[in-house]
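Per reviewer request, we include the raw input and output of the structure prediction for the construct analysed in the revised manuscript.
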Amino acid sequence: MLLLIAVAATSATQTAALAFLPSLIEGGAVIPVAATHDFHIVSLSASFPLAALGLAPIWGWLADRMEYRVLLRIALLVLAATTLAFGSTDLATLYLLRTLSGMASGAIIPLSLLAAGFRAESRVGRARLFTWLTGFVFLGDLAGPLLTQLSFPLLPSAPLFPLALALLLAGCLLSPAQLPKRSRSHSVPRRSDRGNNWKTATLLVITTIAGAALAALHIGLLVAGRGLSLDREAIAFMLSLCGVGMLAAQIAQARLGWLVRRPVDLTRLMLLVLAVGLLASQNPRSILGLAGIAFLLGWSAASLRLVTSFWISSRGSRVSGARLGLQHAAASIGQAAAPIGLALVGVGQQWVITFTLAAAALIVALSLPLLWQGGRRTSDRSSQP
């Protein structure tokens, strides 16, 4: 249970902080023009995933070679400290806090999935544990903005205090005895093969697209140019609604069982839904329409994240922290690429980023059977449940 709380609070720190960025930027520095204000929004949004991108593969590599449980506890305590300090600070400190938080989050989620992989005794059991963990990741996306909106009037200088407290408790109470040890069957694989490498590359590309699509929606809610004016409460509601879609996707996948039995069909369908949602997000006719788009994008992105994290971690009975770190890094690439791309092309050119991501999702969806098949044959021969 503590591990589920830890991943939920880790995820919540990202979406909860987004709703406060516009007001914190305005209070922490003199912003002469609106363009500079929007630039800091996208830059601060990108700093969190960029830090996770740089550190997640390293965390995963270290977890394969030393005691991962110690690394997980350290990361939880670091994230608790930076989350508590998030609030009314100057702009430079805000950048530093966002970067340190991203570095810590790059360890917590991959290492939590690694622990789930060690605990599971079969592929079906691993799928069930991965679904629970990713479900709580997206529960954090849902609850974070709403929880902090409730706590903000009480602690305006530390709006993320409830999340910091949850992370601190998890870091202090989650003892090594509560987490599974690495067994000999989970030793680091020494050799690879082209089939698995090709499959891994495909899953990393899908993860990147899903992360970028979600980030594009989040940034679109924060900056001007959509035609719908949203205040902080409305932004928090939309972010939480996106989290509702993410959580609903986990419940659906747990019931359908496509994650194990029909991963290619599930991935292709979700890529198509993602592309449709991205295109629709360019011209929402009403707040209700935007809410539906947020739910749809959350559902498809969450399903893709579950598929890629489950299958990229699986090679026979071995679960690799390095591969899970790479997968989290790929998600961070997507989360960072959307705001960086928006900063480069300009807020008024959001459609360039959106249409590029939609086209990429469609191309991968149409070619997915060819991309997956080579790695799937090799994997099926070497990893029968």
